[in-house]
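Session log. Operator J.P. requested a structure for one protein chain; no other inputs attached. Running the standard single-chain path with token output.
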Amino acid sequence: MQSVKLFPKVIGIFTNLNISYHKKIIEKCYSIKKKISSGGENWLSKVYNVSGKINLYEDKDFKPLLQWIDEKLLEYTSNLNIDFKPINKNAWFQIYNKNDYQDYHTHPDSRISAIYYLKGKKNSSPTIFTDFNFSTNYFNIINPTEDNSREWTIPFQEGVLLIFRSEVPHCVPKNINSERISIAINYK
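Structure written below.
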């Protein structure tokens, strides 16, 4: 059988093998949290974040990590044969405490988004992606694959980067561990 995959929602997954600067960045996140109140006023959940408060691209301590993420963005777009040159980049972090979560959402003002898993235990809350089309055509899935799934879960692992089109709905279920820190990036 020949198959044609129409309108795919491709998630790029990259692993950072050089996490030597993580400790400095994590300390910086805690330092910022002491000085700046949480952003994301229109978020349903109350995860601590600096969305709309600061852009991590303006902080030299985040530069090594953000440069690596930007390189992976270029690799992602090149692999998909997308001509994309960001004219505006915005990065922020979130600190999830026990029982914190983030509802399904998209990033409508951006073209490509990314999530970087900075700190947390292996069983910290994953990121779940969906397209919400499962309600229109429900099938009994024998073995979930990328081709037949209604949602896809990407487990938390420090140093992992996810890159995706900004309109793909995603969420973070309730965190069962004490703390999870991630960095989000929007490219316009």
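Operator note: The mean pLDDT is 91.
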